[in-house]
Write a structure and sequence with these properties.
The complex is a heterodimer of chains A (539) and B (249). Chain A is of the alpha+beta class and 539 residues long. Chain A has a domain at 5-66 and 113-202 and 309-377: FAD/NAD(P)-binding domain (3-Layer(bba) Sandwich), CATH 3.50.50.60. Helix content of chain A is 27%, strand content 24%. Chain B has one domain: Rossmann fold (3-Layer(aba) Sandwich). The chains are: A alpha+beta (539), B alpha/beta (249).
Chain lengths: 539, 249
């Protein structure tokens, strides 16, 4: 198919914190540079979901006068708590005994989606062309194998892939440098990592699934600026995870739960663990009398430095969590993602001007504070493979006594899709029924995400082997997709005594968990028609 | 010939609308907004007619706050030639919009005026009809098919009983149903071209029309929650419940 072509100096794929920071920094360094940014959501921010307690370090460097420019960063952290939860009890851990990286008194409680909307305004004011509703669906290569650019998604195909009357072919966007900023498990990033073997010699990447709900709670229970984290119940000692409860502005509470996708029990349902967590007396008392107004979920990267792939290749760079720059013990990735984008921009400017190799990205990255942070953080997540208690003891020693300077590096041993044990060897988990007051089912939750994909388009969750879910995954693991998907995309239905694997792709909220956790890597997430997916507000 | 198409910026149809706690309206802050869906059909029809050669120019007009310009830009990206944005802050009622559109019609003298049959936010379904009255033009509402003839339009209307075919003289007002057509996608090059198309901005206060609200809004509240259903054991029980509890038969 012949497609129209547009030429740019730089094409950026993804309008999150890393992509937008790359764009802004590029224009700051060279106002004449020609930059376009593609975003698959219907608007910038609509696919952004994050806690978020924000460290302003990178933004201070990028836009020092962000306060004057009315950035949506208003709620300073005023109070902190850390709770260990037992089934009914809770133990408050003194915050002065927390590692420094987990102390937040200089940070802000923000909505990352709103920050991205603001960053997009700043970028557009500098002359960046932002195209929401245009997913990059394919990578283009030059004859010498270097990245040439991307193709935007074809619009107006029916289920079978035939052109409808409204068919609008995708366009080729060619660039001198293409920046991939798709966030955790970007579907093009994944292809690049494989093709250029960017993860050669690195540990397997580690992921988590993060849930978030926004609640409007009673005024007397609301403590604006309060940040609380918990560990422990309802997860067992062998499952990595914890919660966050942030009291934001307007009587809102950002409440969430993160579970490591290296969990072993296929009966575990991350969604139901999160729902169950809210029934703990220490949490329930905050929510009672309040109302849930938003819901969403997104996978996040936890592998840190050991799993960080090489971030440059001929003609392209990976930034933010498309590579994996999140700082796990800090539970923060926005500032590191932004900084990685800014470093990428500096690299690109030198590359275009002086023809310096893009490999200088990695040298610059290694000299930056991001690398220092990630280096100090590197042993925390792997130590939790020994269980919660040993993990905490080790982290105390590593982070408080040695400040991340222990003379060895622990490894991330297994990929998350390899961690499941056969369902008949693992205990079944009996989750309580939702009460529709504090806890909810997936159906009412997906409704709050505003997700939608136009009817009659190709299914964007591709199975490599269509028989595998029933013939193998159901048999061996009781098809865990039914449980790890946070919105119930995957179902096993029985028709005339025959079991059928059903994919309700219109419900997908682009979290990428299936692409990560499917034991045989049988599910491949690709971009649906532009503008599809969730319509998050202030997530 | 020239077609004027009125478009409105509303909360996106996928968003779950939330009522403000104080009952004064719905939350629009940080909520995804889009073009009112049947207005997309109106634009599409106008552009199609232009492509058939029967019309020279398509003008998109919107009435609303600054950000409503996005809606006009989108219309320009799918084929409208130029845009007009009449700036008004806050909520504006259908009568006021009709009066503003009347002024625009006086100025632009279009042969046809298209718009969606109703807006999905207030569901008024009044603007087209009121504008027709103000201009004393014929109207064809709920159009699911439009055929342009020499000096008239043949319009098929979606009515309760089925389909009604009428013929109206030009100039006329057509309000469009979702079945009228399938709106096209805006392509990247066309979005870029749209940025360069003319977009005139007018302050509503300069038009000399009285747009003061005529309706007093007392309270906005959520519909009552639907109670969970029950399973009945037999047809007899169902009939009994429909008779005695639901009292519908």
């Amino acid at each position: 198919m012949s497609r129209e072509v547009m030429e740019y100096d730089v094409v950026i794929v993804g309008g999150g914190p890393s992509g937008l920071s790359t764009a802004i920094k590029l224009k700051q360094l060279n106002p004449d540079i020609n930059v376009c940014l593609l975003e698959k959501a219907s608007e910038v921010g609509a696919h952004i979901l994050s806690g978020n307690v924000f460290e302003t370090k990178a933004l201070d460097e990028l836009i020092p006068n962000w306060k004057e420019l009315n950035a949506p960063i208003k709620t300073k952290v005023t109070k902190e708590k850390f709770l260990f939860l037992g089934k009914t009890k809770s133990l408050s851990w003194p915050t002065w005994l927390l590692p420094k990286v987990q102390q937040n008194h200089k940070n802000y409680i923000i909505s990352l989606a709103n920050l991205c909307r603001w960053l997009a305004e700043q970028a557009e004011a500098l002359g960046i062309e932002i195209f929401p509703g245009f997913p990059a669906s394919e990578i283009l290569y030059n004859e010498d194998g270097s990245v040439k650019g991307v193709v935007t998604q074809d619009m107006g195909l029916d289920k079978e892939g035939n052109k409808k009357d409204s068919f609008e072919p995708g366009m080729e966007l060619h660039a001198k440098v293409t920046v991939f900023a798709e966030g955790c498990r970007g579907h093009l990033g994944k292809q690049l990592i494989n093709k250029f073997e960017l993860n050669k010699g690195k540990d397997p990447q580690q992921y988590g699934i993060g849930f978030k709900e926004i609640w409007e709670i009673n005024e007397e229970k609301h403590e604006e600026g309060m940040v609380m984290h918990t560990a422990g119940w309802p997860l067992d000692n062998n499952t990595y995870g914890g919660s966050f409860v942030y009291h934001a502005e307007n009587k809102q509470v950002f409440l969430g739960y993160v579970i490591g996708l290296d969990y072993q029990n296929p009966h575990l349902s991350p969604f139901d663990e999160f729902q169950r967590f809210k029934t703990h007396p220490a949490i329930k008392k905050i929510l009672e009398g309040g109302k849930r107004i938003s819901y969403g979920a997104r996978a996040l990267i936890e592998g840190g430095l050991q799993s960080l792939p090489q971030m440059y290749m001929p003609g392209a760079l990976l930034v933010g969590c498309d590579a994996g720059t999140l700082n796990m013990p800090k539970i923060k990735g926005s500032h590191t993602a932004m900084k990685s984008g800014m470093i990428a921009a500096e690299t690109i400017i030198e590359n275009l001007k002086e023809n310096r190799s893009l490999s200088s990205y990695e040298d610059k990255f290694k000299k930056s504070w991001v690398y220092k942070e990630l280096y100090a953080a590197r042993n925390v997540k792997p130590s939790f493979s020994w269980g919660l208690i040993l993990g905490i003891i080790f982290t105390g020693i590593d982070q408080i006594l040695f400040r991340g300077k222990l003379p060895f590096t622990l490894k991330n041993k297994h990929a998350d899709h390899d961690s499941l044990k056969p369902s008949n060897e693992m205990p079944k988990i009996d989750y309580p029924k939702p009460d529709n007051v504090i806890t909810f089912d997936k159906t009412s939750s997906v409704y709050l995400t505003g997700t939608n994909h136009t009817d009659n388009q190709p299914v964007h969750l591709k199975l490599k082997d269509h028989n595998l879910p029933i013939s193998y995954t159901l048999e061996k693991f009781d098809e865990p997709a039914q449980r790890y998907c946070p919105v119930g995309v995957y179902e096993i239905q029985v028709e005339n005594n025959l079991k059928k694997f059903v994919i309700n792709s219109q419900n997908c909220i682009h979290c990428k968990t299936c692409d990560i956790k499917e034991p045989s890597q049988n599910i491949n997430w690709v971009t649906p028609e532009g503008g599809g997916g969730p319509k998050y507000g202030n997530m | 010939m020239k077609i004027l198409v009125a478009v409105k910026r509303v909360i996106d149809y996928n968003v779950q609308v939330r009522v403000k706690e104080d009952g004064t309206g719905v939350v629009t802050e940080n909520v995804k907004m889009s073009t009112n869906p049947p207005d997309d059909n109106a634009i599409e029809e106008a552009v199609k007619i232009k492509e058939s050669g029967k019309v020279k120019e398509v003008i998109a007009v919107t009435v609303g706050e600054d950000k409503a310009q996005e809606t006009v830009r989108k219309a320009l990206a799918v084929g409208a030639d130029r845009g007009i944005h009449v700036k008004v802050d806050g909520i504006i009622e259908p009568l006021a919009v009709s009066k503003i559109l009347q002024k625009i019609v006086d100025k632009e003298k279009p042969d046809l005026i298209f718009m969606g049959k109703q807006a999905i936010d207030d569901d008024c379904n009044q603007t087209g009809q009121m504008l027709a009255a103000l201009l004393n033009y014929p109207q064809a509402t709920f159009a699911s098919k439009v055929e342009v003839k020499e000096k008239s339009l043949e319009v098929i209307r979606e009515v309760d009983e089925g389909l009604e075919t009428i013929e109206v003289n030009i100039p006329a007002i057509v309000t469009c149903d979702l079945r009228l057509n399938e709106p096209r996608y805006a392509s990247l090059p066309n979005i870029m071209k749209a940025k360069k198309k003319p977009l005139e901005q007018i302050n509503a206060s300069d038009l000399g029309v009285d747009i003061k609200p005529r309706i007093e809004q007392i309270k906005v509240e959520e519909p009552p929650k639907r109670k969970a259903g029950i399973k009945v054991a037999s047809v007899a029980e169902l009939v009994q419940k429909l008779k005695n509890e639901a009292k519908v038969i």
